[in-house]
Amino acid sequence: MSTNGYTICVDDRKTPTVGIRVPRLMWDAYSRVCARLGTDRTDDILGHIRGRIREHGDDQDVADLDAAEEELAERRSRKGGRPPKAT
Q1: Which of 31, 49, 53, 75 could disulfide-link to 57, CB 3.0 to 4.6 Å?
Q2: Which residues are within 8 A (CB) of 2 and not within 5 positions of it... i.e. 6 or more apart?
Q3: DSSP H/E element including 66
């Protein structure tokens, strides 16, 4: 699937994986910095995205962010396992 110029791998069972191009040395340095800060790359990037939306987004953007936060919270609450499949 392609949206906003990006190819997104969508799996209905989890959040989509979005690829970005980053030079390997930059990615490695970023990984080390995040480790020293006690965070991981995903949490750090999501924090940046949240901040940008809250600072520069319109009402729809902020509403979408709030809905996405609810989705993330619901997904994370299931980390111990997936709910049983409906038969």
Answers
A1: 53
A2: 8
A3: helix 59-77
